[in-house]
Amino acid sequence: ALPYARVAVVVATNQSVPDSCTSRDHLVHLFGRKKARWIDGSRVVMLQRERGDSSFIVFANLVPGLLDQNEASYREERWRVLYSDRAMQEALMATEGAAGIFDLGAIVVQRLPLKVLCIDGVTPSLWSVRTGRYPFWKDLSFVTYGQPSRLVAEFFRFVHSEEGRALTESSGHLALPLAPPKEGGKAP
Predict the structure, then answer these.
(1) b/e for 157-188, b at 16 or more Cβ within 10 A?
(2) What is the DSSP track for 58-81?
(3) Would you say 61 and 53 are in contact if contact means Cβ atoms under 8 Å apart?
(4) Taking 90 as the threshold, does the pLDDT of residue 8 lie above it?
(5) How confident is the model at residue 181 (pLDDT cuts 50, 70, 90)?
(6) Distances in whole angstroms, Cα of residue 78 to Cα of each of 31, 32, 173
(7) How crowded is residue 156: how many other Cβ atoms within 10 Å of its Cβ?
(8) Are 108 and 12 in contact (CB under 8 A)?
(9) pLDDT value for 32
(10) pTM of the model
(11) What pLDDT, on a 0 to 100 scale, did the predictor assign at position 178?
């Protein structure tokens, strides 16, 4: 396994959602209530991923009570369950009031017309992940069976080159290994 990028995991919403922020406690509430409402009174439509989804696990590990509410939602069939990133992004874009846990890199790379909510007052960004202010992230790795072929090894060298790292960061991912934050750096 060769780690190459860190990506923020976010609460993404349809552009119709009026809220710009949520909290950990509110997220548990949203997953647990069939009749949850956004700040303007419009209906919340939570979208779930399948059990074991890596992005959901990031949140479940850091948000007390979320896993229990998610399991109850599965049992009671409160929300639609989606089985791929593609299905999640299409449902988020097409469903008024929708929200789901998603990957910021996919939103950036594909220029998806989705909103990303700040959580507990912190906006997900490369800067907030790099500095540790935003705790919801996951690392991505390339995995080979045995030693990589010459061509694959050449690609891995490119990924870790200055040019490859710049390309990774332009796609909404932090290149690994992480470079330390710049002194006096400010949030973009």
Answers:
(1) eebeeeebbeebeeebbbbbeeeeeeeeeeee
(2) HHHHHSTTHHHHHHHHHHHT-SEE
(3) no
(4) yes
(5) low
(6) 9, 8, 32
(7) 16
(8) no
(9) 84
(10) 0.89
(11) 85
3-state helix, strand, coil in the chain (%, to 5): 35, 25, 40
Q: How many CA atoms lie within 13 A of 108 on its CB side?
A: 18
| Burial readout 128-148 (b: 16 or more C-beta within 10 A, e: otherwise) | bbbeeebbbbeebeeeeeeee
Max Cα–Cα distance, the chain, nearest Å: 58
Encode pLDDT of 26-64 as tens digits.
Answer: 999 998 877 889 999 999 999 999 999 999 999 999 999
Alpha carbon 63 to its chain centroid, in Å, reads 14
Element (H, E) at 186: none
- Residue pair 117/14 in contact (Cβ under 8 Å)? The answer is no
> Could you tell me if 56 and 101 are in contact, meaning their C-beta atoms sit under 8 angstroms apart?
yes
Q: Which DSSP symbol is given to 122?
A: B
| Distances, alpha carbon 75 to alpha carbons 28, 58, 102, 141, in Å | 16, 21, 22, 33
First to last CA, the chain: 32
Closest CA to 13 of 50, 53, 42, 52: 42
